[in-house]
Design brief:
Elements (H helix, E strand, L loop, with lengths): L16 H10 L15 H5 L5 H4 L6 E8 L2 E8 L2 E2 L10 E3 H9 L6 H5 L1 H12 L2
Antiparallel strand pairs: 1-2, 2-3, 2-4
GO molecular function: acid phosphatase activity; bisphosphoglycerate 3-phosphatase activity; inositol phosphate phosphatase activity
Enzyme class: hydrolase
Protein name: Multiple inositol polyphosphate phosphatase 1
């Protein structure tokens, strides 16, 4: 993603709500402080942070904006065009890129470069054609 002076200025990826909702969860957005169940008190249920109608409404979107601030890479998260606090960075609205990546590492069990390089993507597509 960050490769000297030749990095792309914009990278856009599109998905369905069914993939956006789990991603919001992995980022810790809208996470409730307590576990919710059918037996949770009414106050906890009505006051919950996660509401599907707000988290993934029609045309829901998530943007990760990368900034170079005096030689330090920072990331900002926008959900439905609004800046949101990042739990992995103490609810700051801009987070150090290395801290952001480290917080997500626990969710990633695969090597990013082996999956996301054009050669790996092409060979993965070729393998899926054989199925």
């Amino acid at each position: 993603m960050i490769q000297g002076d030749s990095m792309a200025r914009t990278s856009l990826n599109f998905a369905h709500a069914e993939t956006l909702a789990p991603l919001l969860g992995l980022l810790g957005l809208f996470e409730d402080p307590n576990y919710m169940s059918a037996n949770s008190p009414a106050e906890a249920i009505t006051g919950r942070r996660f509401r599907a109608s707000q988290a993934v409404p029609f045309a829901a979107n998530l943007a990760l904006v990368l900034y170079n601030v005096t030689g330090s890479w920072q990331v900002q998260v926008l959900h439905n065009e609004r800046v949101v606090p990042q739990p992995m960075c103490g609810d700051a609205t801009v987070c150090d890129w290395e801290m952001f990546k480290a917080a997500q590492a626990k969710h990633l069990r695969m090597d990013y470069h082996s999956i996301c390089t054009p050669a790996a993507t092409a060979s993965a597509n070729d393998a899926s054609d054989e199925l």
